[in-house]
C-alpha cells in the first residue's frame, strides 16, 4: 500500500512537472529542451552559467523568432529578441510592464524599500519626488564635494584596481551625501561578502529569487545580520548628512505626504484618484540603500571592466589624455562638471566597455496588466519578461565585429543611437536613476588616473579574464593587478 501511494505520488509529480514545463508549447512559443524540475535553470543553479549567458545562448538558438520561452525552474519567462517589442515593453506600453519582479529582496532587509524593489504607484511617487537629486546642478555640487574631500592617493607601482576603485566609489558616494563612511575597511569587507558569496549563500539567493514563499518560510535573507547592522549605521549616516538629499527629504515632509494625481501618475490607468504616501524613515533609508547596494558595486565593477580594457591599450589612453588636456585648457585648468561632461571620447570608452561587459546583462519586467502582442500572443498579469541586453549589445546585426573593443564606434553617435541596442542602464521610465552620477564618477577617476599615469596590466594578472561564478552582478574573478607608471 505504501509503495502504491509512493508510486502515485511520483506519477503525480511527474505529470505536474510535465504540465508546468509545457506552458510555452501550449502558447505556441518556441522553447528549448528542458530538464525535469529545473527547466533551463540547472546550469544557473549549479553556478556553471550566469542567467545572462543562458539568455544569450538561447537568443542565438532562436534567431528566427521575435521572442522565445525560458523556464527558470518552473517559472515561464518570455525573452524578447525583437527591438520593436523591446521598445513597446520598456516605453510605449510601459503601464503594462511597470514593475520589476521580486528578484532577491526579502521582507526584512532595508533594501525592501529601495526604488528598484518598489512597484506600482509608490514606486512612481518615489521616483518622481527624488528625480531632482540627480539634476545637473546637484551633480555639480557632488563633484565639488568629491574633489574637495576624496583624496585620490596614487603612486607609481602596482595597485589592485578592484579594491582601489571600490574604495573610491564608496568615498564618492559618501561625499554625495556630504558625510563619510566610518570604518571603511570593515565596510568594504562586509560589502564583498554581500556580492561574492559562498555556495550556500548562492542557494539562498536562488530561493529568494525563485521560491520567495519558501524563502519566507525558512527565513532566507538578502542581507544577513550583522551585515544589516553595518548598513543600518551607514544608511543612518548618509540619510542624516548635511546634503541636498536631506534638504529634499525635509522639503517633501514639509509639503506633507507625497501626493500624486492618479491621472498623471497611476502607472496602471488614468483614474481621477489622488494617492498619498508618507515619506517614512523606512522609505528614506530604503532609498539610500539603493545608492549603497545598487550604486556602489555596480559602479566599481563597471570601472574595473574599463580599467581592464584601457590598461591593455596605450593608444586609447593617449587619446583620453589628449582630450583631457584640451578640455582642461578650455576651462582654465578647472576640474568642473562641464569640463568632465565635455570628455566625449572618454564617454565613448565607458559606453564601449559597458556594451561588451555590462554589470547587469539583462533587464526584466513583470506584466502588470494583461497584454496582447501584435501577433496575438497574450501575457497574463504576473508573467515575467526579460530583455537580454548583453545579446543585443554583442549582436553583429547591430555592432560590426561586436567582440572588438572600439570606442570610435561611438563617435558621432548621440541620441539617434537610442534604438534599444545599448541598455547597460536600462531604458524607459524605470531606467537607472543614478546613471548620471555613475558616469560622472567613472569619468572623473579615469581622467584623474590618466592625467598623471600610464596604465598597464600587471604580469600577475592571468588572461583570459574570468567572471566570478557566484554573484548577481557580473564581476571580474580574483584581483585585477595594474601597473601605474608616472608620466614624464
Ligand atoms: C555603472 C553603474 C550602474 C549601472 C550599470 C546601473 C544599472 C542599472 C540598471 C540596469 C537598472 C535597471 C534599469 C531598468 O530596469 O530599466 C538600474 C536601476 C537603478 N539604479 Fe542603477 N546602475 C548603476 C549605478 C547606479 C548608481 C550610482 C545609483 C544611485 C546613486 C543607481 C540607482 C539606481 C536606481 C534607484 C534604480 C532603480 C530605478 C527604478 O526602478 O526606478 N544606479 N541600474
UniProtKB/TrEMBL annotation:
<keyword id="KW-0256">Endoplasmic reticulum</keyword>
<comment type="function">
    <text>May be involved in the metabolism of insect hormones and in the breakdown of synthetic insecticides.</text>
</comment>
<dbReference type="InterPro" id="IPR002403">
    <property type="entry name" value="Cyt_P450_E_grp-IV"/>
</dbReference>
<keyword id="KW-0349">Heme</keyword>
<keyword id="KW-0492">Microsome</keyword>
<keyword id="KW-0503">Monooxygenase</keyword>
<keyword id="KW-0472">Membrane</keyword>
<protein>
    <submittedName>
        <fullName>Cytochrome P450</fullName>
    </submittedName>
</protein>
<dbReference type="InterPro" id="IPR001128">
    <property type="entry name" value="Cyt_P450"/>
</dbReference>
<keyword id="KW-0560">Oxidoreductase</keyword>
<dbReference type="Pfam" id="PF00067">
    <property type="entry name" value="p450"/>
</dbReference>
<dbReference type="InterPro" id="IPR050476">
    <property type="entry name" value="Insect_CytP450_Detox"/>
</dbReference>
<keyword id="KW-0408">Iron</keyword>
<keyword id="KW-0479">Metal-binding</keyword>
<dbReference type="InterPro" id="IPR036396">
    <property type="entry name" value="Cyt_P450_sf"/>
</dbReference>
<comment type="similarity">
    <text>Belongs to the cytochrome P450 family.</text>
</comment>
Amino acid at each position: 500500500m505504501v509503495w502504491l501511494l509512493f508510486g502515485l505520488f511520483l506519477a503525480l509529480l511527474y505529470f505536474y512537472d510535465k504540465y508546468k514545463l509545457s506552458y510555452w508549447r501550449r502558447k505556441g512559443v518556441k522553447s528549448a529542451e528542458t530538464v525535469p524540475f529545473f527547466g533551463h535553470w540547472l546550469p544557473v543553479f549549479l553556478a556553471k552559467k550566469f542567467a545572462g549567458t543562458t539568455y544569450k545562448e538561447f537568443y542565438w538558438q532562436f534567431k528566427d523568432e521575435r521572442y522565445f520561452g525560458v523556464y527558470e525552474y518552473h517559472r515561464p519567462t518570455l525573452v524578447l529578441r525583437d527591438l520593436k517589442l523591446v521598445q513597446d515593453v520598456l516605453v510605449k506600453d510601459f503601464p503594462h510592464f511597470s514593475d520589476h519582479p521580486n528578484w532577491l529582496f526579502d521582507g526584512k532587509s532595508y533594501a525592501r524599500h529601495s526604488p528598484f524593489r518598489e512597484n506600482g504607484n509608490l514606486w512612481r511617487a518615489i521616483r518622481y519626488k527624488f528625480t531632482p537629486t540627480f539634476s545637473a546642478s546637484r551633480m555639480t555640487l557632488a563633484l565639488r564635494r568629491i574633489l574637495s574631500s576624496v583624496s585620490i592617493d596614487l603612486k607609481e607601482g602596482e595597485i589592485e584596481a578592484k579594491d582601489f576603485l571600490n574604495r573610491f566609489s564608496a568615498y564618492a558616494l559618501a561625499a554625495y551625501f556630504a558625510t563619510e563612511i566610518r570604518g571603511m575597511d570593515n565596510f568594504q569587507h562586509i560589502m564583498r561578502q554581500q556580492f561574492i558569496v559562498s555556495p550556500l549563500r548562492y542557494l539562498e539567493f536562488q530561493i529568494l529569487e525563485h521560491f520567495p514563499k519558501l524563502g519566507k518560510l525558512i527565513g532566507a535573507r538578502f542581507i544577513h545580520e550583522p551585515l544589516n547592522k553595518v548598513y543600518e549605521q551607514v544608511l543612518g549616516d548618509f540619510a542624516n548628512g548635511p546634503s541636498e538629499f536631506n534638504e529634499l527629504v525635509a522639503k517633501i515632509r514639509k509639503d506633507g505626504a507625497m501626493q500624486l494625481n492618479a491621472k498623471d501618475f497611476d502607472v496602471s490607468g488614468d483614474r481621477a484618484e489622488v494617492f498619498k504616501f508618507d515619506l517614512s524613515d523606512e522609505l528614506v533609508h530604503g532609498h539610500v540603500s539603493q545608492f549603497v547596494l545598487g550604486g556602489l558595486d555596480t559602479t566599481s565593477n563597471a570601472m574595473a571592466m574599463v580599467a581592464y580594457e584601457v590598461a591593455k591599450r596605450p593608444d586609447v589612453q593617449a587619446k583620453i589624455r589628449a582630450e583631457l588636456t584640451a578640455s582642461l585648457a578650455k576651462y582654465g585648468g578647472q576640474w568642473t562638471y562641464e569640463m568632465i561632461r565635455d570628455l566625449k571620447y572618454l564617454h565613448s570608452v565607458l559606453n564601449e566597455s559597458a556594451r561588451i561587459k555590462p554589470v547587469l546583462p539583462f533587464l526584466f519586467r513583470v506584466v502588470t496588466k494583461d497584454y496582447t502582442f501584435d501577433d496575438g500572443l497574450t501575457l497574463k498579469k504576473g508573467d515575467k519578461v526579460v530583455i537580454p541586453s548583453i545579446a543585443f549589445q554583442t549582436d553583429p546585426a547591430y555592432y560590426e565585429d561586436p567582440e572588438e573593443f572600439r570606442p570610435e564606434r561611438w563617435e558621432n553617435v548621440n541620441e539617434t543611437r537610442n534604438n534599444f541596442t545599448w541598455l547597460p542602464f536600462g531604458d524607459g521610465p524605470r531606467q537607472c536613476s543614478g546613471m548620471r552620477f555613475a558616469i560622472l564618477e567613472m569619468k572623473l577617476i579615469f581622467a584623474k588616473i590618466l592625467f598623471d599615469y600610464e596604465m598597464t596590466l600587471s604580469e600577475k594578472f592571468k588572461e583570459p579574464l574570468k567572471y566570478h561564478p557566484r554573484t548577481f552582478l557580473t564581476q571580474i574573478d580574483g584581483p585585477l593587478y595594474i601597473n601605474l607608471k608616472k608620466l614624464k
